[in-house]
From TrEMBL:
Residues 312-526 form the Fungal-type protein kinase domain. It comes from Ganoderma sinense ZZ0214-1. SUPFAM superfamilies: Protein kinase-like (PK-like). Residues 711-794 are annotated as: Disordered. Residues 741-750 have a biased composition (Basic residues). It comes from the Eukaryota. The lineage of its organism: Eukaryota, Fungi, Dikarya, Basidiomycota, Agaricomycotina. This is Fungal-type protein kinase domain-containing protein. Pfam families: Pkinase_fungal. Residues 725-740 have a biased composition (Basic and acidic residues).
């Protein structure tokens, strides 16, 4: 919401706060406009400076409104004390309206002490104004928020929507005594829709039958609801008499629904508001009758204290379907209508294509649609010549709602590495099916868009967690599509999970390889955040992830974002380094074996990284030398392997799906080293192939860690015996020689295997290691300060 524009004061009122003009209109007969007697009384009252000096700006305006009865049947209430040091806010509210504040329209007032209005550009950049508007967008169902700025002698209304703000030029109410009485009169006769309330939403209040229904739905029903834990036994459904069994829900859905009816006191933006709504969503089956859903507070939303403000105002609800009689997921957002000349499909339209094509592990669409007449209006009045020096053209947004059947849980509930790999395998399968059957790539693979969906395994009657690939709002055309060569708009995406080649490329054509690399980053991010590893302290995972996935604005990058040095090193040398022991990142088993290496997961992650490495160094971006990168050796897992062949594995889905499937089939239940051999003459088993790959990589674990380290030490010992030039060529064949050292006539700084090779990204945070840890070398480990199991992040 950065865009802003302005209108003449009278034009603003006539555009947004239109009132009837006919003298015989019933509304005007009940609430006649102020006359010259009111204007004269206002002039005389304002002329008394003694009264003005006794109050703060907000208290003085409240005194004026009450004394002169400027807003019939309404009062001006102050929200904050002027002694708090915060901006003085107030709002208009009806005197005899029993509804809570969240259920009725509110016009906000900001009182300032200046005798001159702050410039529109300066005012709109005020974070408090944006945060106040964002909070109203979160708590209420609104199309716009109106804010009236009142100073020593001026008044300035503004309208804020998700695309920006339209501000009126300030008007002096001391010089013209008709300004303020007429403004308050207009506010008293406007409809709720004119004041910004969404007509497709209705508050649910005590006494409403739906209010009692929502309270009843919040009660626990463990005897009929499905347990959500992976592996839990599902109780059989029971029918009452001749009636069929009612639709069953998941326990976590009902629990969340109850919590969101009465959020805790520490919930941002909902400390004092317990909003309940009946939301309408367009329905293709009956266009004249929208489908209705009951919701409480949103399950997911962007807090008003988070910067920058979310212009899409995406909110996700646990909703109850009054037609299907079950809990569903309702997404409310303001979507972009077009971008860079391309008309954007609604997310529901994309999901319908995927559902009709039988693509697995994607949400199941219930209904969706744009809300009629609810577009942002700021673009209508925007002009690049209106005098603002920091103009930014507003984006046209449209109010949109979508309902899907599944209510998923986040990756924070992942219990072990095998569970994580299984979930990622499902999402890769979904991505492959979408590309094959619909010609679409997801376009925004990220941690928040891969969720866990509890399902019922009919063969065992137990709960089975499956992956779910969410948020198909900005899909791209797959390479197989006839228009795949046309660059698509960048859209919105999580840049920290984006492939390096895509970020460094001069065009914006997305490929399958780019998407598969994004899956790797999500796998790494989730594992480092939630699985035991050799990151030494509880805060280390967060610090490592901030350094590895950090992105900053950059004018040198085609996409506008820079890539961290750690991520570039990981792809160039096929190893991930962590601090402070200068070790390669390794993961351990959960309790009670948290000191033992997770052999299967480490092997899978390393092989996946090798494929990403090969694809990158063979790409146009990877062939370009990168300055200011440490000179390091590639991982032994790459030595002697055909990079072209490895890179081709990332051009399609079959190789990666097979890698994950073989790993899951071979995954040891007790995580001990297993020898799997086929009988003579038989086809090699998938498990045997997987463990051979582990051995080829110098895999670590029971019975293999010493052999793996021996391979590493042997490789680096071989390099030490080589001439300097050969040693540099062996380890740095795709990097540019140090230009500073070359200018001095030297051969560059020597790098031994046991020296630091990467400067700290942030002091004391991450340093690039190359030497193996004591555990991997087979040496006894020092006694840690805390058990590794406590390093797990939740």
């Amino acid at each position: 919401m950065k865009a802003k524009t302005h209108l003449d004061y009278k034009t603003f009122l006539d555009t947004f706060w239109t009132v009837p003009t006919a003298s015989d209109d019933p509304l005007l007969r009940r609430n006649p406009p102020p006359n010259h007697y009111t204007h004269r009384a206002f002039r005389q009252t304002v002329a008394k400076a003694s009264e003005r000096d006794r109050y703060t700006p907000g208290e003085y305006m409240r005194w004026l409104v009450t004394k002169l009865k400027l807003c019939p049947k309404h009062s001006l209430s102050l929200d904050t004390s002027p002694l708090s040091g915060k901006p003085e806010w107030g709002h208009m509210e009806p005197i005899n309206d029993p509804r809570p504040a969240w259920a009725r329209p509110q016009v906000l007032f900001l009182f300032v002490k200046d005798s001159q209005s702050p410039g529109p550009s300066e005012l709109y950049r005020h974070r408090d104004v944006l945060a106040k508007a964002q909070r109203q967008f979160n708590v209420q169902q609104l199309t716009a928020v109106f804010v009236v700025v009142v100073g020593h002698d001026f008044v300035q209304p503004m309208r804020v929507d998700r695309a920006g703000a339209v501000l009126a030029w300030p008007e002096n109410y001391v010089r013209d005594p008709a300004v303020l009485p007429h403004l308050f009169w207009r506010l008293s006769v406007l409809t709720e829709t004119q004041l910004g309330l969404d007509p497709m939403a209705a508050p649910v209040l005590p006494g409403d039958p739906d209010y009692e229904l929502m309270q009843s739905l919040a009660e626990r029903r463990d005897d009929t609801d499905f347990p959500w834990e992976d592996g839990a036994v599902v109780p059989p459904a029971a029918a009452v008499g001749d009636e069929p069994a009612k639709p069953r829900n998941w326990r976590h859905e009902r629990s969340w629904f109850k919590t969101l009816l009465d959020p805790t006191e520490d919930t941002e933006d909902f400390k004092h508001d317990r909003s309940l709504w009946r939301l309408s969503v367009p329905n293709d089956e009956d266009p004249d009758e929208p489908r209705k859903f009951l919701v409480g507070s949103p399950l997911a939303y962007r807090s008003s204290k988070t910067w920058p403000i979310d212009e899409r105002n995406t909110r996700v609800y646990v909703a109850y379907d009054l037609v299907g009689l079950k809990f569903v997921c309702l997404k409310d957002s303001w979507r972009e209508v077009d971008a860079e000349g391309f008309e954007l499909e609604r997310e529901g339209e994309v999901l319908k294509k995927l559902n009709d094509a039988g693509v697995p592990y994607v949400p199941t669409l219930v209904c969706e649609g744009d809300l009629p007449g609810q577009d942002t209006r700021t673009p209508e009045f925007w002009s690049e010549w209106d005098g603002f020096p920091d103009k930014e053209e507003p984006t046209k947004l449209r109010h949109y709602r979508m309902v899907t059947e599944e209510i998923c849980i986040t990756l924070t509930d992942v219990k072990d590495s095998r569970q994580l790999v299984s979930i990622m395998h499902d999402c890769i399968t979904a991505h492959a099916a979408a590309a094959e059957h619909c010609g679409l790539l997801h376009g925004d693979i990220s941690y928040n868009n891969i969720l866990i969906c509890p399902t019922v395994d009919a063969t065992t009657n137990t709960v089975k967690w499956r992956g779910m690939l969410m948020d198909w709002e900005f899909p791209r055309l797959a390479p197989s599509h006839k228009d795949s060569g046309t660059p698509r708009p960048h859209g919105r995406r999580s840049w920290k999970y984006t492939s390096l080649a895509y970020m460094h490329a001069s065009d914006s054509v997305l490929t399958v390889c780019d998407e598969l690399e994004s899956f790797f980053y999500v796998l790494l991010y989730t594992a480092a955040l939630h699985l035991p590893s050799n990151l030494p302290t509880p805060d280390a995972p967060k610090g490592f992830l901030e350094a590895f996935f950090s992105t900053d604005l950059s004018k040198d990058s085609p996409c506008g974002w820079s890539v961290s040095q750690l991520k570039q090193l990981a792809l160039r040398q096929a190893r991930i380094l962590c601090a402070p022991n200068k070790d390669e990142l390794r993961f351990f088993l959960p309790k009670p074996h948290s000191e033992r290496l997770d052999t299967a997961f480490n092997a899978l992650l390393q092989e996946y990284l090798v494929w990403c490495h090969a694809a990158y160094v063979r790409s146009d971006a990877g062939r370009k030398p990168r300055r200011n990168l440490p000179r390091t050796y590639r991982s032994p897992a790459v030595e002697g392997r055909d990079l072209d062949e490895l890179a081709r594995k990332m051009e399609g889905y079959d190789a990666l799906k097979a890698l994950f499937a073989d790993a899951l089939e071979a995954w040891p239940a007790t995580q001990v080293e297993k020898v799997v051999k086929s009988e003579p003459g038989e086809v090699e088993l998938a498990m045997e192939a997987f463990w051979k790959e582990v051995a080829h990589m110098g895999g670590v674990g029971e019975g293999t860690e010493v052999a793996g380290v021996a391979h590493v030490e042997e490789e680096h010992g071989r390099r030490r015996k080589l001439p300097t030039k050969s040693r540099e060529d062996c380890g740095q064949d795709e990097r540019e020689e140090n230009p500073k050292a070359k200018a001095k006539g030297g051969r560059g700084t020597k790098r031994s295997y046991d020296t630091d090779v990467a400067p700290a990204v942030e002091e004391g945070l991450v340093r690039g290691p190359t030497r193996a840890s004591r555990r991997i070398r087979g040496e006894p480990a020092p006694v840690p300060e805390e058990l590794p199991a406590k390093r797990r992040r939740h």
